[in-house]
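dumping this here before i forget
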Amino acid sequence: MTNQIPTQNSLWYNFFRKHSEEKNSLERLLSKVPIFSQLTERELRRLASIVHKREYRANEFIFSQEDPGLGMYVIEDGEVDILLTEPDGEEKRLAALKTGDFFGELSLLDESPRSASAVAKTNSKIIGFFRPDLIDLLNRSPKSGTKILFKLGEVVGARLRITDEQLGKTSAELERRLNNKGGKRNAYRQP
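structure:
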């Protein structure tokens, strides 16, 4: 009996090749997420082996507003809407995310309730990386975990700065509108 080297036409060769390509693709996708961007190839392989993959149908909730925060998500394929339900019940879309985007990363730091809902807009493949995964990674590989935490801090800090900027602009616009209304009223007043 001779050992044959699998060819491209071989069923087994294609199967293993596809599995290997999927792993490499997952590692490549994770490397593009800012939180994981400082990890080495070896660390990315380890991370790829512990993340959780799930498929969601269009209009299926990934999580709901007020759910406990469990971790972050990366969109491997598809689209996700981030929705805020106002106290009056009206839904407001905060963001429309697509393949390669990530969300929910603040839950890696604390388990506070979700401030908004995440809903699959289309059939989507989602990767989950949860707080217990991060804690386990910190215990097993402090260097890898620390890299993730520092990048997580950078991402959260950047988003906080953007939010502060937007809040400042909104506040200034509101103040300008209130002053204009007050100014018009005062202009029509008789002494």
